[in-house]
Amino acid sequence: MSIDENKELIRRYIQAIDDNQTSDWSVLDEYIAEDFVAHNPAIPGVSLDREGMKQAAEIFRVATPGRHEIGMQIAEVETEGIAIHRVRDGKIVEYWSVTDIARVLQQVGVLPGP
Q1: Do 6 and 17 form a contact (C-beta atoms < 8 A)?
Q2: Sign of the torsion angle spanned by Cα atoms 103, 105, 107, 110
Q3: Which helix (H) or strand (E) segment is 96 a member of?
Q4: DSSP symbols for 13-43
Q5: pTM
Q6: Cβ count within 10 A of residue 56
């Protein structure tokens, strides 16, 4: 896939998350590979695989209603402070994020503090 096709995949993936209004996250199977691995700090009780991404999407759907805004999307370089997705054969196979998800969830009251 080209860089532009990879960017479009990520935009469609984010759109699918934003558009889902139910706890059924099977829609993400279209975007996330079966052997997907996330490389960011885990949310307590949530795995870093495809099923964990579905669990995380549901936590955010319930806890932080709203939509994502992609201010800038860069696939040509890696840079700190953004989510990085590795794409293979039209599906997301790896994900990195420098965001401390657990702390955000603590701040909005979804997870207890330390």
Answers
A1: no
A2: negative
A3: strand 91-96
A4: HHHHHHH--SS--GGGGGTEEEEEEE-SPPP
A5: 0.69
A6: 21
Distance CA 32, CA 37 (A): 10
Structure tokens, 20? 């889902």
Q: What is the pLDDT along the chain (114 residues), one digit of tens a residue?
A: 899 999 999 999 999 999 999 999 999 999 999 999 998 888 899 999 999 999 999 998 998 878 888 887 867 673 334 678 899 999 999 988 776 667 667 767 777 877
The token pair that represents 94 in the structure block = 């790896």
Residue 3 CA, distance from chain mean position: 19
Name the token pair of 24: 């059924």
